[in-house]
Amino acid sequence: MEIVLLLFSALLTTVVALECEFCSSSTGNTCSGHYEICQSSDSRCRVTLTETTLGNIRSAVLEKSCGSVYNCTHPPSLTTNGYQVRVSTVCCDTDHCNIGTVNLSPVNDTLNGESCPSCFARDSDQCEMQTVVNCTGEEHKCVYFTVSRYRGSTITMAGCASESVTASQGKAAFRGLMVEMANYNEHNGAGSLRPGPVIMSLVIITAIFT
């Protein structure tokens, strides 16, 4: 009887597993690719548009994939005086529901009345926070961290961040190249913000080192 129950449980898990489209594009508002079965922690198919601004250079990447409920309800947002990340996300919970062109909601860029000390420095593991940036949307924390490309350049920045950025110690805001992060620190609202203890982790990032 126990063996039968285990087999039934495995069969049920297979039946209810979600299947979503996976693809990415930096040239349009849709893409098409292959299907994958989602992991048990990912109960949604999603479409995300990640828009980054580095100085005067803007880029956007659209992706389709599996995602968790948290991924869907907490899109990352980061604002510094030299680098900005905005993410729009649409999620659904049936097989292949993220295929085709999906209408994405506009990013919440409304000023929320909060501000953070800010800086942005290339090729440096520190930067002096002499300016203040106004936070938007769900950016309610001030952060400071250093991002280093593996065996390459280093950038240090400080500014406003949303919950998913702080919960991941900066990881959620970056996509693309394998990098290391260090000196992560955060606090609520404007004020003194100093580099924290070194915290090393591998993350993904796009555009920032190009």
UniProtKB/TrEMBL annotation:
SMART domains: LU (SM00134). It is found in: Secreted. InterPro entries: CNF-like_PLA2_Inhibitor, LY6_UPA_recep-like, Snake_toxin-like_sf. The keyword Cytoplasm does not apply. The keyword Ligase does not apply. Coiled coil: none annotated. Residues 18-111 form the UPAR/Ly6 domain. GO terms for cellular component: extracellular region. Keywords: Secreted, Signal. Residues 1-17 form the signal peptide. Its main location: secreted. PANTHER family: LY6/PLAUR DOMAIN-CONTAINING PROTEIN 8 (PTHR20914), LY6_PLAUR DOMAIN CONTAINING 9 (PTHR20914:SF30). This is UPAR/Ly6 domain-containing protein. It comes from Hymenochirus boettgeri. The lineage of its organism: Eukaryota, Metazoa, Chordata, Craniata, Vertebrata.
